[in-house]
Amino acid sequence: MEPLVSILIPFYNAEPWLAQTVESALAQTWPHQEVILVDDGSTDNSLALARTFEPRGVRVTTQPNHGQGAACNYALRLSQGDFIKFFDADDLLSPNMVALQVAALASHPRSLAYSEWARFYSDPTEARFVSRPDWHDAAPIAWLVETWADAQPMMQCGQFLLPRALLDRAGGWDERLSLINDFEFFTRLMLASEGLVFTPGARLYYRSGLPGSVSGRRSAAALQSAFLSATLGTGYLLAAENSPRTRCAAAAMLQSLVFNMYPNAPDLVRSLERRVHALGGSTLLPKGGKWFHAARRLVGWKAARWLQIWAGRHPQPTSS
Question: Which of 58, 170, 239, 265 has the greatest CB tally within 10 Å of its CB?
Fold first, then answer.
């Protein structure tokens, strides 16, 4: 009997793009699937829109606004699939995504499948699927070290197809987390797996630039979530292998968070800096243009960041 795949879509105020997302799930060529939507207390017309898909077999339920992690876990409890795909309510899947990933895991039942991805902003035809260095099969630790080296790992949930048995071993989403919760979740799952299987031709269209998205939040709670997710995730890697290569990779991830948080959350920044120092330091450089890096070389990156802020080239610090 062919395996059942559960596509789980949590959503909150996703009315403008939810229908397109659900249609891409329903358009999958894999015939044995269920689609479950969980409304996380939306205040717009998202829930009513979601219910229009019920006659087509989509299961729709709702919960108070407890966050994405809680909605994902709720959907997981409702699901029956042998394989699970968590799928954000603003992204799109290529029609062959599930079929290719199920086929890839047939001979690797203890692994994760992951796909190609590309960004788009308003229309999926904008997406350009250019091969990336990490698009290959890999052992978990090796893949994490490789993708953390420049502190730019892509762990968007729609990329992955997960065996239910792996989730049963490793656990669901940490409901304390909001900002970069996928970093903790997928690091934990990868390290509990036998490896990652890349699935060429399976494509995630990753919608970017949305106002008010979780990834853009800079509140005190969001920054605390990012701090906790990063420290947990890097801790998992170091517990699996404490070596020069894993310490270097973990230090890069934490240093990247220092760059992203400064000058907000000074206590968290200091704690991250102490952790980076304990790991041996990091050679990672902050992002910025020629003007920023010229100033950085003269006065240091923190002073250069303040010059950016005063010049209106970087967001003003948020208040806690």
Answer: 265
Range(s) of the domain holding residue 241? 215-289
Q: Residue 212: what pLDDT?
A: 56
β-pairing verdict for 112-120 and 83-86: unpaired
DSSP H or E segment with residue 294: helix 290-299
Give CA separation, 78 vs 61, 64, 72, 96, 320, in Å: 10, 16, 10, 25, 37
Are the C-beta atoms of residues 70 and 179 closer than 8 Å to each other?
no
**Along the chain (320 residues), what's the average pLDDT of each consecutive run of 10 residues?**
96 98 98 98 98 98 97 98 98 98 97 98 96 97 96 94 97 97 98 98 94 64 97 98 98 97 96 98 96 96 96 82
Same domain membership, residue 104 and residue 37 = yes
Alpha carbon 13 to chain centroid, angstroms:
19
Residues 154 and 194 in one domain: yes
Please give the tally of structural domains in the chain.
3
> Checking DSSP bridges between strand 59-63 and strand 83-86, what pairing results, if any?
unpaired
Neighbouring-strand partners of residue 6: 34, 84
Residues 93 and 46 in one domain: yes
Give the residue from 194, 214, 234 where a domain finishes: 214
Contact in structure between 34 and 26 (CB atoms under 8 Å): no
pTM of the complete model: 0.95
223 with 209, same domain: the answer is no
Same domain, 230 and 220: yes
**So what's the pLDDT on residue 1?**
81
